[in-house]
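Today's session is about reading a structure prediction critically. Students often jump straight to the picture, but the first step is always the sequence itself: look for stretches that repeat, for charged clusters, for runs of hydrophobic residues. Only then move on to the predicted structure, which in these notes is written as discrete structure tokens rather than atom positions. Here is the chain we will use throughout the hour.
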Amino acid sequence: MNIGPLDRITRIILGLLLIGGRYFFKFPGLVGDGVVLLGALWVWEGLLGYCLLYGLLGWSTKLRD
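Below is the predicted structure for this chain, in token form.
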């Protein structure tokens, strides 16, 4: 795990807002699909507590013990 609690909550909330925003604002075609995909990725990362980009760069927002 490399994502801290605040980062996880933020990713889940923003991801859900992106997914809901696609249908609320009716983004068409590929733009809408991209918004949903990004939102789903953020929700997934928030639930798992792991960000692939952070892992590749060696970053972490998780508090150390």
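Discussion point for the tutorial: DSSP finds three helices and no strands in the chain.
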